[in-house]
Amino acid sequence: MSDTHAQTVAYVRDTMLDQKEPPLNQVGAVKWIRDNLFSSWLNILLTLASLWVIYAVLSHLLPWALRGVWDASNLTQCRQIIAERYGEGTNVACWAVLAERWPQLVFGFFPRELYWRPILAFLIFLTAVAPVLFSSVPRKVLWVSAIAPFAIFWLIWGGSLWGPIAAILGFAIGWAIMTFAAPKLGTLLAVILAIVVPVLYWLFVCGPLAGALASVVPLSLQTVATQKMGGFLLATIIGVSGIVLSLPLGILLALGRQSDMFIINKFSVAFIEIIRGVPLIVWLFTASLLLNYFLPPGTNFDLMLRVIIMVTLFSAAYIAEVVRGGLAALPKGQYEAADALGLDYWKSMRLVILPQALKISIPGIVNTFIGLFKDTTLVVFIGLLDPIGLSSSIRATTDWNGIYWELFVFIGLCFFIFCFSMGRYSLFLEKKLRREHR
Amino acid sequence: MATISDPPEQGFRLSQLIFDTRYRSMTIQVVAMVLIGLLLSWLISNTIHNLEALGKDFDFGFLSQPAGYDINQQLIEYNNQMTHGRAALVGILNTLLVAVLGCALATVLGVIAGVLRLSNNWIVSRLAAVYVEGFRNVPLLLWIVLIFALMTESMPAPRDFKGGDGPSMLLGESVAITNRGVYIPNVVFSRSLGGNEVAAAEAPAPAAAATPGTNMAGTYGASRIATGGAGIQAGQNGTTAGAGGSGTSAAGEGGEVIPSSSGWDWLLILAVLVAGSVGAKLLGKRAAHIQEATGKRPMTLPLQIAAILVPLIVVLVALGASLDKPELGGFNFDGGVHLRNSLIALWLALSLYTGAFIAEIVRGGILAISKGQTEAAYALGLRPGTTMNLVILPQALRVIIPPLISQFLNLTKNSSLAIAVGYMDVRSTLGGITINQTGRELEGMLLLGLFYLVLSLLISGVMNVYNSSVKLKER
């Protein structure tokens, strides 16, 4: 072989070969599977183990769920149908309980002929949050958002239309003072007036005014008591009001905690720590057992309202901590820049600091909201019929005694859909804001 | 350009209180102070008036009155003739028990799931993601109720263990999973330090007023959810569950010495364990010293193991330790430790739920360490295990610890959901039955809130100390 280099080359290619596909095990599904599932012995073992887990779960779950019975009026009948269809002793879901009881699971004991009211309220709610959540929705829809709380309240609880309208008037008064009186009186005085005058109006004028209007033009819906509400209607009302009310309160608390003013700072810290240090259940029991002690003798207001107040305070304390993190994460230069522009405290917060701080804290805020929505199930312990409470009372009836998986799966799925989509929305928001930033 | 600013022309004017930023903050604080003071005094005067109207006073004397109700799980000695204060203490210990067990299991689950979610294996990481999302997005209460229903309704009854073809006990006939709970072996001592009189005093007290399940009907909802679970169990024999259990006894007959265990035995064992591990640590330090001085590291690992194990074994033999396995007698199991369904359901649900959150924290912590750190460690010639221990983990822990603290806090506070399954924690003894029986809502809730507040502050305090020991040391 020593003389090979002396030989002339026998053949030289004069044309390029066509490009070839890469080998089959270097592209596409095969390569992906090799890399992701079978790259090493450990990996192969893990893959096989997890495939076994998936098989074990699905082989039990799918036949049980898919072969389920949907039309039966009670559990005995349901079991008979199953025995006829699949033979004795087959373990199959009895979804009939959902088919029969879903109005109760969704609306509680809301009068059946009035179901259109919560449904309409829900549609209004969806329209109202659309412009807040998605910037592609026309801005004019924001008017719906402004009126929505009153409309929804009126639709769900019923009563005279003039009550909500008179209440709106208070906000209109405050807004009018801010717009027309502020240039003449100075901002500070106008703000004070815009808070004091509507409060006085609500305390002394609102009720009689609504009464007078109602006696002239009676416009009212049938009243529905709070005790009649339950299921997901209840969970949504408490959850949504808690979410809407706790965000501004939480931001205020966070600002208070960051404040230089000693007293305000210390009170915010004390409030946040005390609320966060005690479980929500204890607060709910406080609301149901003790709140009457703290209020003037004879005061007795709705249990749901008390729960909403407690849930709001509770989640506001958590949001305050999340927002505080966002505030702390902002570089000091931003604060100094806002000061250098000559902005006063509220303007600098509103225009410079909070938009950035809130953007940072979006994941935490949404997490808190998800937690709040899940925590609405705890109201079962103070006697309100949330979905879990309703499932227990359905199981206690003779018709459906002994059923549990189906109800739990349904309730769990509903909560999952709601909470999971909140989480996805937060991801979407994060991505959008990041893109806009660059 | 003016070089000297004009001296203020006037003295202090009242309007400066509002318009001058130097004074405005004072004004705001004073106003806030007055408003908050007014609010507080209004609340307090309302409370006083209301209490007067109801003819009640503000008095914690009820804590020393006899409680008169039974608690189905007690870590310390308790019977229904003891005081409300003692009952509250039993509840507190039960809360702490489930919190400690839950934190431990949740950490394990969370770390495993968090690491698996980062796995290269697609299926494994998806499975971990399903676990995390599934548990995070469904209310904890649902999980607790679901696991409880699973335990009570689809597990075999104790009497089914009799037949040959029925369900059998696990782990060498020592663990039985039944619809009344899980029975595991108990460690008993024939020469117990606490003496054996505990066993005699342990006679099951008759269920006095009602079973706990129905007792709590006053606190709404509880009995609706705990469908008789706690009620069934209350009638059972007095063998109490307790992982750190004291006062557990085996039902013995006749005049023979009944093996039992008391808190003192466990305290001694714990002390020996701690002393052993301190000794092992000292051995390691000495070895490091010698290594620095001479360059040779003496063999320490066997010595360290011996330092921990030998005293432990000596103590166990001295106490005459033996395993007391649960045995089927009649319709139920005798002996061993009975972990009630309520405890199991609460423990598993809390751990699985919190574990999902911890998994995300762990994942975030590991992702926060840049890959360059690993590569740098490899370039220095460190092995993967050493890299993990010396380079990655110390840095990841800095990110992981603070949110982990709040998860532990959450778990502890969430243990108050025990009400759903009739587990007798502090909320159902002090905040439930005691309040119902004595009518002392204000005092009871105040004590309950204070307990949770102190516990939260303690946990966060301890964990913050740990956090400051691992955090980045900066100038």
UniProtKB/TrEMBL annotation, chain A:
Domain spans labelled ABC transmembrane type-1: 232-426
Main location: membrane
Leader sequence residues: none
Alphabetical keyword list: Cell membrane, Membrane, Transmembrane, Transmembrane helix, Transport
One of the GO BP terms on file: amino acid transport
InterPro entries documented for this protein: AA_ABC_transptr_permease_3TM, ArtM/GltK/GlnP/TcyL/YhdX-like, MetI-like, MetI-like_sf
Pfam annotation, one family: BPD_transp_1
Transmembrane segments: 41-66, 114-134, 141-157, 163-181, 188-211, 231-255, 267-291, 303-323, 357-383, 403-428
Superkingdom of origin organism: Bacteria
Membrane topology of this protein: Multi-pass membrane protein
GO terms under cellular component: ATP-binding cassette (ABC) transporter complex
Cellular location(s): Cell inner membrane; Cell membrane
PANTHER family: INNER MEMBRANE AMINO-ACID ABC TRANSPORTER PERMEASE PROTEIN YHDY, MEMBRANE COMPONENT OF AMINO ACID ABC TRANSPORTER
Family: Belongs to the binding-protein-dependent transport system permease family. HisMQ subfamily.
Protein name as annotated: ABC transporter permease subunit
The organism of origin for this protein: Alloyangia sp. H15
From TrEMBL, chain B:
Key words, A-Z: Amino-acid transport, Cell membrane, Membrane, Transmembrane, Transmembrane helix, Transport
Subcellular location: Cell inner membrane; Cell membrane
Pfam families: BPD_transp_1
CDD domains hit by this protein: TM_PBP2
GO function term, MF aspect, one: transmembrane transporter activity
Example GO BP: amino acid transport
Main location per the UniProt record: membrane
Residue intervals of the ABC transmembrane type-1 domain: 92-463
Any one cellular-component term (Gene Ontology): ATP-binding cassette (ABC) transporter complex
Membrane topology: Multi-pass membrane protein
Transmembrane segments: 23-44, 87-116, 128-151, 305-323, 343-362, 445-466
Keyword Nucleotidyltransferase in record: no
Family indicated by similarity: Belongs to the binding-protein-dependent transport system permease family. HisMQ subfamily.
NCBIfam families named among the record's database cross-references: HEQRo_perm_3TM (TIGR01726)
Protein known as: ABC transporter permease subunit
